[in-house]
What does this fold into?
Amino acid sequence: MKTSLPFIVCVVMLLGMLPVRTQNRVAQRKLGEVVIPLQYDAAYNFSAGFAVVRWDNQWGVIDKTGKVVVPLQYAEVRGFSTGLWTVRREGKWGYVDNTGKEVVHPQYDEVRDCSEGRWAVAREGKWGFINKTGKRVVPLQYDKVLRFSTGLTAVARDGKWGFIDTTGKMVIPLQYSEAKSFAEGFAPVNSDGKWGFIDHTGKMVIAPQYDAAMSFSTGVASVMRDQKWGFIDTTGKVVVPLRYDYAFNFYAGLAAVQRGGKWGFIDITGKEVVPPQYDDMREFADGFLMVRRDKKWGVIDTTGKVVIPLQYDETKDFNQGLAAVSCDDKWGFIDKTGKVVIPLLYDWTGSFTEGCAPVARDDKWGFIDTTGKVVVPLQYDEAYSFTDGLAAVRSEGNWGYIAHGPQ
It folds into this structure.
């Protein structure tokens, strides 16, 4: 039987009134020590000092001491955005601050996260925007809205798109078949089935001529015509010919491109740094890229050089210098030279954070350090990675948090 939550909260509050003893306890706490009792039905990782938890199917928020800061009374609680939590009760959405005050009483059918001090909200199929106090600054009158970017957002009504500013003023009239957000001073817009680009004044700076277009990034945008993708610059000049089956935006000087079902990378001049040859890949991280061919994963660098042979069934990205890899359903870790530093003997692993990684074997979870030493015994039914010095763990159906060590 679970202990009454109000009773536990009262105990935590009373303990909080003993500053000297609490400080000593925090200073002495050990890696793996349970610091927030295993009492919740569900729990998420801490972020910025707070975590979303569930008790008896009601969601709320706690701080790192275990104090309830947003009462457990909501059907859903979403991530913290610019000082407010998004909450749902009786099918309606609203916003709560970190004191638990309902800044916006749950009343909307749909809501979105903040962008440039504005929250998009909808009721009965119509969208508008509110500010941080809950004041409606743009009436609920649009069929669709996007996020604000550089002071403007795309909005649609009766099948036509235009742009408004943060006060709700119509800056660019509703006239386009479709529109995307501004980036680097330009926004893709669709007119009569073709995509072009406008500037902040609404001037068409690149004439509608493409079948598809993505936003500008690092001075170029990927565009498609006749099922082939390439890149243009902000003047509309084609800098990479439209010859690929698909192309992503540039990142760190390289863009992923696909041709004939295979993936590779080009530089800003269009040179194929890594000719299309891989079946799958992930984004670059720390100068390395996970790639797959013939059902095996390996690692290449930004020059396309294979630094770790394609020999693993599964891989995860490098984190704190190590990457989790799998062969024959067993997981371990390699370093950036490809050396196996932690043998492949676990059934599952998370990634390293704060010097530890969750690992599982025989349905029990614990934690290891970067040398492979077990620092928290494999005794839990589930465990998440450490964030903010705490890790969520589950045992016998209940979730709580263990400490990384002294704070």
Summary: The radius of gyration is 26 Å. The longest helix spans residues 5-15. Confidence is low (pLDDT under 50) at residues 5-26.
